[in-house]
Amino acid sequence: MKLTNKQIRQIIKEELDNVLNEEESTEEYEKIKNLILKDPESGNMGIMLFNSLKGSGAFPEQEEEHLERLSVYAAAVYEYKSLNDEIRKIRSSKTTPVYSRDPEEKNKLKQLKKQRREVGKKMYELEYTVNMRDKRALLRAVGLH
């Protein structure tokens, strides 16, 4: 895994900002962040809540930028988890091997795997936009870490 200089600068800047402003965060920011990081259902509610408040001046600029990056990454993680669960459900629903299943089921499984790959790539690209603490908490919440 290679990091570009831009990604390293972004990570350092974000971590430094987090340390310097740790005590100054607003209550709304903390509530929405905790909702997003809790579990997929709460996370989606937190993302919707943030999107409705975004641009309204409810958050300082730095907090709004952080929640924006976090919500985009969280949405990708939750979608990946959902696709993963659907694939697992299809695989475990039948006792017959994959190669002897009907063509429709094989095609659906193929499409789900393709979607999961695309979302996985998106997750990989976005993972450098959130700090490590939030990333770990989010992945733990969905059981991917």
Q: What does it look like?
A:
The protein is mainly α and 145 residues long. The chain has one domain (24-140). It is built from 6 helices and no strands. Helix 3 (40-53) runs antiparallel to helix 4 (61-93), helix 4 (61-93) runs antiparallel to helix 5 (103-126) and helix 4 (61-93) packs parallel to helix 6 (132-142). The longest helix has 33 residues, at 61-93. The chain is globular. The two termini are 17 Å apart. The mean pLDDT is 83.
Please outline the helices and strands.
Elements: H1 5-20, H2 27-38, H3 40-53, H4 61-93, H5 103-126, H6 132-142
List the main descriptive attributes of the protein structure presented here.
single chain; 145 residues; mainly alpha; 6 helices
Q: How do the SSEs run, as a string of H and E?
A: HHHHHH
- What is the strand content? under 5%
Number of helices: 6
Alpha-carbon distance between the two ends = 17 Å
Into how many domains do the coordinates divide? 1
Category by helix and strand content: mainly alpha
Helix content: over 70%
Could you give the count of β-strands?
A: 0
**So what's the overall shape?**
globular
Largest sheet report: none
Report low-confidence residues grouped into runs of 5 or more. Answer: none
- Give the mean pLDDT: 83
What's the quaternary structure here? Answer: single chain
Radius of gyration: 18 Å
In short:
The chain is mainly alpha-helical and 145 residues long. The protein is built from six helices and no strands.
